[in-house]
Amino acid sequence: MNNKYLKYLNWAVFTMIDRSTQDDQKSKINVAGAFSYPSNAEDFIKTLPADHKWYILDFDRLERFEEFYNFVQDINEEYGEHAIFHINDGGFLVDELNCFRYMLNIYVDTKLE
Question: Nearest 5 degrees, angle CA 94-CA 7-CA 67?
């Protein structure tokens, strides 16, 4: 982001658009807001509709999170309840895996909420 107005907005509040509604059958990120600090993003989430699951992540990791989200859906379809055993097969770094699994509450199974 080289725009002088946006260069300090490093944090995104977003939700995921389900893959079943997309032509390419891939879930997409839908950004609701951009913020300088995660605390501002947390305050913003409180004003958003509760019928969606909202996430906060720095902009540098958004694309990778979308890839991970789609990967989890793919292994769920392919392996079912055994998908958790294939979570490391996606080529994600350990830091990415830890961050994204924490965000999605993926610990003993790969069910997405």
Answer: 30
pLDDT in tens, 8-25: 899 999 999 988 888 888
Q: How is the beta sheet containing 28-35 ordered, strand by strand? A: 28-35, 11-17, 55-58
**Number of residues written out for the chain:** 113
Q: Coil, strand or helix: which one is 107? A: coil
**Mean pLDDT, the chain, whole residue set:** 91
Tell me the C-alpha to C-alpha distance, in Å, between residue 104 and each of 4, 20, 45.
Answer: 33, 19, 16
Stretch (H or E) spanning 11: strand 11-17
Q: Which residue has the tokens 């995660």?
A: 38
At a CB cut-off of 8 Å and minimum separation 6, what does 31 contact?
12, 13, 14, 62
